[in-house]
Amino acid sequence: MRLLGNSARLAAIGLVTGFLAASLGMVVLSAGVPEPAVSVLGRTVSASSSQGETPDIDAGSVASASTVRITTTRCDGTAEGLGTVINGQVFTARHVVEHASSLRLQRDGEVLDVATTLVGESHDVAVITLESDEPSDVFVRTARAEPGEPLVVARGLAFSLSPEPTAVRETRRGAGRNDPPTSLALVTTAIPGDSGGGVFDASGGLVGIVYAQAYSDRAALVIPSESVSGSLASLTPQQPAVC
Question: In this predicted structure, what is the pLDDT of residue 233?
Answer without folding.
Answer: 76
